[in-house]
Structures are given as C-alpha cells and as structure tokens.
Amino acid sequence: MGINEESGKEKAGKLVKPTPLKKEKNIVPSSEAYALQTIEQDFPENEVRILLLGVDGSGKSSVAQLITGGEVLQTAKKSSKRISAYYPCIRNGRQYVVVDSPCLFHTRIAPKFVITEVNKLIGLTAPGPHICIFVVPGVKLSSEEKQAMSRIQNAFFPGAIDNSIIVLTKSDILNSDGTSIEDFKSNAAPVVQNIMTKCNNRVVQVDNVSGDKDTQRNQIFDMIQDVLQSNTDTFYTNDVYTLAQVNLRVHKQKAKEKYMSSDEGIPLLDKIKEVERVRPLNDTTRENETAAASQDMMETELERLKEQMLQVVCDQVRDGILQESITPFELNLRRLLTSGTKAIGKFLLSFMWFVP
User: Fold this and answer.
1) Contact indicator for 84, 64 with CB cutoff of 8 Å
2) Which residues, at least 6 apart from 227, have a Cβ–Cβ distance to it below 8 Å?
3) pTM for the structure as a whole
4) Are residues 36 and 256 in contact, defined by beta-carbon separation less than 8 angstroms?
5) Residue 47 · residue 97 · CB < 8 Å
6) Which of 116, 122, 70 is nearest to 99 (CA)?
7) For the chain: N or C, fewer Cβ within 10 A?
8) What is the sign of the dihedral through the CA atoms of 102, 52, 356 and 80?
9) How far, in Å, CA of 1 to CA of 233, rounded?
C-alpha cells in the first residue's frame, strides 16, 4: 500500500532509532532471527484502518457498532480509563480496524488527558488511517461544538481530504422533517458546510431508530471501497505518524520475536525455511510449469502466514497502547514543544485550547 504524505510538511525532528543487533563473527543466527530478517514490513498489507472523528454525542460509537456488527463490540478492545477503543472486523476476506476516538477539542478536557489520548489515536492508527470518517449529527450544533468541529478539521485537513468521508447521524430527525442532504448542507453551520464540500459531498446518512442496519452498513462500505479504489489503497500519514512508527517499531520487533518462538510461529518458520530452500532451485527451472506452480503456492501461503503474524503483532501493540504500557511519544507537552520533534508538538497544539 502506498503512503499519502501531507504536502508542505515540516522537517521532522530527530529521534533515536533502535540500535540494530550487531553481527558477530563465527556466530550462526538462530532460525527465528534469520526468519525475522525476511519480514521487513511492520503492518499487514491487507489491513484497512478507519479513524472515527466527531464531537461528543455525535454517534461515533454507534457508527463503529454499525460498521463492525453488534456482536463484535462484546470483544472490542477498550481502554479501561476512557473511551478510546478499536474494533477489529473482517469483511470480504479483508481485515478492518475501526478506531473510535474521544472528542478532545472541548474546553473542559484537561491538556494531560488530550496528550495521552492523542498518543493513543496516533498509535492505534499508525502508520496512518486509510479512511477518516467525520461523524456529523444532523442537528443544530452548539457554539462549543462548532469550534470543536473546526479544530478537528484543522488537525486533519488538508492532508486527509482524499481519505475522508462523512457519516450523517440522527437522520431520523431529518427524515421526519423531510430534509434532504442538500437542504441540510445549505442550512448547516459554515464549518459543517466546509467539511462536506472538502469531502466532495461523500456523505452517508445513518438512521439508528428505524433504518435498516444491513443497508446502511453496505452503503458505508461501498463508499469506503470507492475511496480505497480512488486512492489505490493509499493511507493518510504525516510527520507525526512517521515518527510514531519509528518508536513503535521497537515494540513490534519484540512482539515478532515472541511470536516466532511460540507454537503459533512454527508454521511460519517452517514455511520460510521451505521457501528459502526451494526458491533458488525453482528460479533456474521456472520454465517447468509444475515447479513454478508449486513455488507460487508456497509463496502465497508464506504471505498469508506473514500477514497472520503481523496482525497478531499489531493487535498486541494496540492493546499495550490502550493500557498505556506503550506510548508512541512522551507525555510532556512542554518537552515535546521545546525538543527537536516540533512536528509532534505542532500537531498536539491543534487539539489544545491553550498551552499548559
């Protein structure tokens, strides 16, 4: 999958990268270590990351439940302290991770909590979300909610425009009045009109009262597929996500090593050995259709096992992020603002009403 980098991005500050293991002479690396050298990626290629954004009471959790199915919520990965959560689901053979973020843009939210939750938001969707869903309630917004929507827009636009759609909730109120999406937009607050325009009117209505959930779920996924196809599966990212991925790589490497030494990792380890043994032989005999087909099958199975491992690894790291045992960045805003990682401080400031 590609990367949709935000234009005009600020030069990122320096981070200390994990020190690579030294190769000592006369020491043969273990099978697990050798196998890990063949797996360079840090996230599953088949995964689609969806980030839900919106003000309190907009219906983000209901949208997450609609996308993933009600039964999935019983085993959702939730933070024990606040409402940050991610919901994994599989649709048409593809893994989706839906991240439900708390609204961090109100004046009543403490800066320390904002920093903690932004860390989770970035960590759960790293290396970047494929889809940003702006959850907009189909009702009149308060002055504070309008300001919050404006700050959400400023934090993710213009970089995430091509990856964004709108889910208009509480459509039962609009339907009872006979209000169309066009009528709602023309009478909505300027910030809502602006978001709808920038998203190229990619809007799905959700009626949680009388609407058919399967139909609404299919409509959302149809729009998600349209965005994925138009972006060739490109996800949104920026300097902050890039730096977070560097820091999280240490934890993912440890999780990979643990996986490879477990019973779950044995099939992957065996398949890597088999492919590495057969590949040189078949490279010289590809004209043999039987040998070529056999190698292709092994390569396909190897990729499946790699994807399986990477999904387990990413889920373990996400659980650690929710429990705050893993954090992409330090939690002191002042140090972030005065250190070399100015991109992180700048991103955090977009969530703040004042600098603590």
Assistant:
1) no
2) 130, 131, 162, 163, 165, 202
3) 0.83
4) yes
5) yes
6) 122
7) C
8) positive
9) 6
